[in-house]
Amino acid sequence: MVQKTDQIVIPVELGERNRSGFRSKYIVGGLLLLTFVGFLIFQVYHATTTTGAYYLTVGELYERVPQIYGERVRVSGNVVEGSEDWNPQEVTLRFQITDESQHVLPIVFYGPRPDNFTRAASAIIEGELHPDGTFQAQTLLLKCPSRYEEEPEEVFVEAVR
After folding, report:
1. Which of 134, 139, 66 is nearest to 95 (CA)?
2. Distance (Å, whole) CA 131 – CA 45
3. 108, exposed or middle or buried, with CB in 10 Å at 0-12, 13-18, 19+?
4. CA 91, 66, 100: angle at the middle one, nearest 5?
5. pLDDT of res. 122
6. Count of Cβ atoms closer than 10 Å to residue 60 Cβ
7. 156, 140 in Cβ contact below 8 A?
8. 150 touches 81 (CB < 8 A)
9. Digit-coded pLDDT (tens) for 77-128
10. Rounded Cα gap, residues 95 and 62, in angstroms
11. How do residues 18-66 score in pLDDT, each as one tens digit?
């Protein structure tokens, strides 16, 4: 009689797994994912806090004068007719806006003069109020009445310095 033994011999080192390398991949991947999500949350928070601006009328701006200096604000008002002073050599536009409270706010904008500025009825200006009483504009949004449409035409311009 012949006896067959069909036993397969498995080396001991193949039966044991090295789990420490397997876990470290997940830990490193999880840390990278958490870092990326944290970075995204920081970017959203930073963008929201630095680009936010108050939206005020000229009268409301003057009510907050002492504490509003140096803060980025957005002011809305009507362009005072005949107040435009354009200096093409310095690329500087000076004009005034007003609202129902009859306060007048002098605006200084360092940038190109919008083509339709003479037709501008109202403006939304974003920038900072200086202690000397002038408002240095970073962006202009002009609303001009259109000849052919009911909706006013809007022009957006940014400062160059």
Report:
1. 134
2. 30
3. middle
4. 70
5. 83
6. 17
7. yes
8. no
9. 888 888 888 888 888 999 999 888 888 999 999 988 887 777 777 888 999 9
10. 17
11. 555 567 888 888 999 999 999 999 999 888 776 665 678 888 888 888 7
Please, are residues 145 and 117 in contact by the beta-carbon 8 Å criterion? no
CA dist., res. 74 & res. 141, Å (int): 10
Q: How confident is the model at residue 133 (pLDDT cuts 50, 70, 90)?
A: confident
Tokens for 61, please give them.
Answer: 């701006």
Tokens 């974003």 correspond to what residue? 126
Structure-token pair, residue 102: 């009859």
In this predicted structure, what is the pLDDT of residue 95?
92
Q: 60 CB contacts (<8 Å, ≥6 apart)?
A: none
